[in-house]
Amino acid sequence: MATIYQVSELAGVSLATVSRVMNGGTRVSEKTREKVTKAMETLNYRPSSIARSLASNCSNSVGILVSELHGPIYGAMMSGIEKQLRTAGKHVIIAAGHSDADSEKDGIEFLIDRNCDALILHVEAVSDEYLIELAKTQHAFILINRYIPQIADNCISLNNRRGGYLATKALLENGHRDIAYISGPLWKMDASDRYFGHQEALSEFGITCNDALLSEGNFQEEGGNECMLALLDKNIPFSAVVCANDEMAAGAMQAARDRGMAVPNDISVMGFDNVLLAQYMYPKLSTVNYPVQDMGKMAASWILKNIYQANQPEISHVFEPELVWRDSVISL
Amino acid sequence: MATIYQVSELAGVSLATVSRVMNGGTRVSEKTREKVTKAMETLNYRPSSIARSLASNCSNSVGILVSELHGPIYGAMMSGIEKQLRTAGKHVIIAAGHSDADSEKDGIEFLIDRNCDALILHVEAVSDEYLIELAKTQHAFILINRYIPQIADNCISLNNRRGGYLATKALLENGHRDIAYISGPLWKMDASDRYFGHQEALSEFGITCNDALLSEGNFQEEGGNECMLALLDKNIPFSAVVCANDEMAAGAMQAARDRGMAVPNDISVMGFDNVLLAQYMYPKLSTVNYPVQDMGKMAASWILKNIYQANQPEISHVFEPELVWRDSVISL
DNA sequence: AACATAAATGTAAGCGCTTTCATTTGGTTT
DNA sequence: AAACCAAATGAAAGCGCTTACATTTATGTT
User: Fold this and answer.
1) Which residues of chain B have pLDDT under 70?
2) CA B50 – CA A136 distance, rounded (Å)
3) Is A328 within a domain?
């Protein structure tokens, strides 16, 4: 591997000059620039990013912490981030936090120790206080899918409440009045926000929310299945169920069918997230779109703009969900 | 940020000694080890991985190149890799290749330039020759889901042919005789291997493979949909269709239903991969399991063993698929 | 007690770059 | 031609570590 020194030798200039043509900042005469460029080519020179990082105190890498590396939401998110960052020549170091506070802290420390210039965090378990504290250190980070008022500038989030509202309102507008709700773990902000939105829509239609029609799930198919069964067992009639994410909707559908009910004719099902799976399901799932890939891109833009001084379009911090109509809901 | 120098000062020892207690290799007296450890704690010292990399010429990072960051297969794969590597204190740099030769080469160069100690590659578009050539350089890498005889030791792959064989054989054993096939892009090794397996099973049952019953798709839902439609339009009767992956199976099911056919009663559908989606579908998809997460783990083990001299269990290079019975296939 | 030997520690030279500051070069001005 | 100034280039000091080698200290041997 050729070093900068060998290039400078071949080109007959000093190290500093080679560095200059690499980084393009200061002026170098056309003649020497050419000499150096040619030397770099003949030696097939690749600058060492490590050495560069050490000398410049900038690693050109950003750390990403997601709950899981698999799963449609995180996949789309990372995809958005990588695309954006890669074209800017930054690289992406990835770790998983597994929705566990210790594991998330571990992950954050790991990434910081790796000299990431900035972090993009999708953390669920770690406390607000921890993050507020973290923001006071010199470690730059942006939070995805979480909103903490004290550090609002570091947050990019979905208007989950409005999403929940939209989902339920769509059902209401189509004549449904008895609507069950399968939530995510309510200690998670997004889960409770979505549920609040649901309640809001109900009350807007003058319906008092029946706690018996709420079942708390785990954001997974199996949980949706169990919740649906539990709901059905209560023998309280309902014509529709809104699920706090698409996976649970899949489970709920399954459960309904296992009990001999047809979807959507006997019961309408509404999802949330609009992951790929939603269109694969049968019937295709009506759901609420969560533009997570765009949010990933935006997070990357924020970093490019705030950490690397690249110029980037305006940063939006709150994204709006949208209703996606498909086949799992009927009009009463 | 404290440096090693400050630690050495506080502990009253030399740089080298601090380095020794950090790296644990050579012997240090218990007394000084304690002094140093305490100094590190009071200073909240974190070694700079960058400086360490530069000095030791080892970055403790491994690069991963997958076709896409989203998608169930890649997600599971990365998840397996990260889990394994993270516990070993290595970190994971990720890039996407988008199934395009130039983009894949770019990605590889990018990762190499990033001083990754080794690479894990899931590449589809780049030629065998390129990879064979790459193996001759000093850059260590392992290929996932691809088999190249000349560098077999660098490959971890699925026995795709056997998978295709299993899928079709299962159909044959259940009385199906007229079996259509929706393949992936046949220039991709895995796609053609799976199809070969299909043919093999047919011929084992004394059935000549009818080319008219093959339709080449793109491994995506929409492709599966189109292929199924095309197949149906030929008016050649068939009682089952095997699809080269689960997404296409979802599309095919949809198409069949759009034409008024019931799955599995009018037509049986067999998938491949056993991604999460397969259990969410309705009816639940019978498919062939592709243990991609395990393969990811194995790739990581290979690297830990061969690059970082960690001791690891025996490396398997070829994984075997397994049939997964669910509800999308009936017995004739 | 004198010496040999091994263990513990220190010294200092890098690793491949960036960057500040000093020096040289070449073009203008008078 | 002397004087000046900006542009181009070079010299050298780090960045925070690792590591070969040198030195010191402790341990054991006779």
Assistant:
1) 25
2) 24
3) no
Contact yes or no for B272/B242 (Cβ under 8 A): yes
Kindly state the tokens that stand for A268. 């309408």
CA distances from A43 to A7, B15, B57, B111 (A): 7, 36, 20, 20
Asked whether residue A89 carries a pLDDT value surpassing 90, the answer given is: no
- Token duo for residue A330: 């009927």
Q: Quick check: A247 and B53 CB within 8 A?
A: no
Whether A32 sits with its Cβ under 7 A from any strand D atom: the answer reads yes
Number of Cβ pairs < 8 A linking chain A and chain B = 126
Q: Which of B61, B221, B281 sits opposite A282 (nearest CB)?
A: B281
B189 and B139 inside one domain:
no
Question: Would you state the pLDDT for residue A252?
Answer: 96
For the domain that residue A28 is a member of, what is the CATH number?
1.10.260.40
What's the domain count of chain B?
3
Chain B residues closer than 8 Å to A72 by CB: 70, 72, 75
CA B52 to C1' C15 (Å) is 9
Q: With CB atoms and an 8 Å threshold, state whether B75 touches A70.
A: yes
Residue B305 maps to a domain: yes
Neighbours of A204 (CB within 10 A): 12
The pLDDT, as a whole number, for residue A118 is: 94
What amino acid occupies position A47? P
Chain B nearest-CA residue for A106: B86
B332 found inside a domain: no
A40 interface with B at CB cutoff 8 Å:
no
Write out pLDDT tens, residues A34-71: 999 999 999 999 999 999 999 999 888 899 999 999 88
Domain of residue A129, CATH code: 3.40.50.2300
The mean pLDDT of chain A is: 93
Answer yes or no: is B53 within a domain: no
Tell me what the mean pLDDT of segment A71-83 comes to. Answer: 92
- Give the helix ranges, DSSP H, for B57-152: 72-87, 101-113, 128-136
Q: Domain range holding B234? A: 160-290
Q: Classify A189 as helix, strand or coil.
A: helix
Residue A28 has pLDDT above 90, yes or no: no
Stated in angstroms, how far is B16 CA from D21 C1'?
Answer: 13
Residues B241, B94 within the same domain: no
Residue B8 approaches strand D within 7 Å at CB: no
